[in-house]
Amino acid sequence: MVAVPAGAAVPESARDVPGYWDEACRHLTKRDRVMKKLIPQFGDARLQSNGDAFTTLARSIVGQQVSTKSAQGVWRKLVAAVDGPDVELLQPAAVLELASETLRGVGLSVRKVEYLSDLARHFRDGAVHVGQWQGMDDEAIIDELVAIRGIGRWTAEMFLIFHLLRPNVLPLDDPNLIRGISENYFSGEPVSRAEARELGDGWAPYRSVATWYLWRSLDPMTAAQ
């Protein structure tokens, strides 16, 4: 998957859709020959955000280095242990109330228990300034997130794109972005990081949107979260 795993199911009316999307599509189709052909192939599909910040990041930790099916199974057991099977949003305080043995019992590794607990402490203690993110630039938010154990730059960038709906993120560490550039711009030839960055500069200020369409070109479902 190329996306940060979405949170628990949220009604369609509660989902956020970027207000900049149509303008971004017009911008990209005017300036980029590949985007001009690619964007119309996906009709009215749009990036959408759901869930909340803590739940989204917690799911990203649960899903690390395991299959989607395994991650979903562990997540169901985790939310049941925290607050019953019908809980939609995980709360940091509720996670911290659970013993490490309980967290291990739902299928989390020792390291993931440590990561999840550190994430919960950051949110509980206000070390991440969720209420201020709207006015912070991307790099400042990334700096806050990568200070949490188990969250690296790639996860932080996926969070910016899929949860905060930031329009101008270019996740150069994402292998599917590099693959999408290779297949759509270089006839499948290898692409260097520098080449990808140079190409991405031409998509600004909507690099997230171009990235999303390249993901869709590889697999229409992987970017649909």
TrEMBL record:
> Does the keyword Chloroplast belong to this entry?
no
Kindly give the InterPro entries that the UniProt entry links to this protein: Alkylbase_DNA_Glycosylase/TA (IPR051912), DNA_glycosylase (IPR011257), HhH-GPD_domain (IPR003265)
Reactions performed catalytically: Hydrolysis of alkylated DNA, releasing 3-methyladenine, 3-methylguanine, 7-methylguanine and 7-methyladenine
Gene Ontology BP, a term: base-excision repair, AP site formation
What's its top-level EC category?
hydrolase
Question: What keywords appear on the UniProt entry?
Answer: DNA damage, DNA repair
Q: Give residue ranges for domain HhH-GPD.
A: 62-219
Q: What is its EC number?
A: 3.2.2.21
Q: Name one GO molecular function term.
A: alkylated DNA binding
Q: Which PANTHER family match?
A: DNA-3-METHYLADENINE GLYCOSYLASE
**Family membership:** Belongs to the alkylbase DNA glycosidase AlkA family.
Its name, as the record gives it, is: DNA-3-methyladenine glycosylase II
